[in-house]
Amino acid sequence: MRPPEHAATLIEVLEYHVERQPERLCVLLYEGETQIPISYRDLWQGSLGFASGLAAAGQITSYVMTKHAVVGLSLALRSEAAGHGVGVLAICPTAVE
Q1: Are 92 and 50 in contact (CB under 8 A)?
Q2: Which residues are within 8 A (CB) of 44 and not within 5 positions of it... i.e. 6 or more apart?
Q3: How many other CB atoms are found less than 10 A from the CB of residue 61?
Q4: What are phi and psi of 39, to 5 degrees?
Q5: Quick check: 16 and 25 in contact, CB under 8 A?
Q6: CA-CA distance, 61 to 91, in Å (whole number)?
Q7: In angstroms, rounded to a whole number, what is the distance separating the alpha carbons of residues 13 and 19?
């Protein structure tokens, strides 16, 4: 398993961290007054759902199209910003209301 600085994908980075420290808090979301802690394991599991949203499927065209756009934008920004030491990552949750 490659360390994060040599990983080619977000999944590889998350797998590295899940193997070593699955319950470590890495994101704290705020929903009003409520704090929602997200661990590496939570992100990894969510990334599997994210990947399924990139697969073409009927009846959810707008969802798949939007997710492709966000991922494409983040990849383009990532390559532009890398020379300045800036990383770009898109976190796309499952469908929300």
Answers
A1: yes
A2: 11, 14, 15, 17, 18
A3: 10
A4: -95, 170
A5: no
A6: 20
A7: 10
2-43 residue pLDDT tens: 677 777 777 787 788 888 888 887 777 777 788 888 887 887
DSSP string covering the chain:
---GGG-SSHHHHHHHHHHH-TT-EEEEEEETTEEEEEEHHHHHHHHHHHHHHTS--TT-HHHHHHHHHHHHHHHHHHHHHGGGT--------S---
pLDDT (tens digit per residue) in 40-90 = 788 777 766 666 555 666 667 777 778 778 888 888 888 888 888 888 887
Amino acid, single-letter form, for residue 53: G
- In a 10 Å sphere around its CB, with 0-12 CB exposed, 13-18 middle and 19+ buried, how is residue 17 labelled? middle
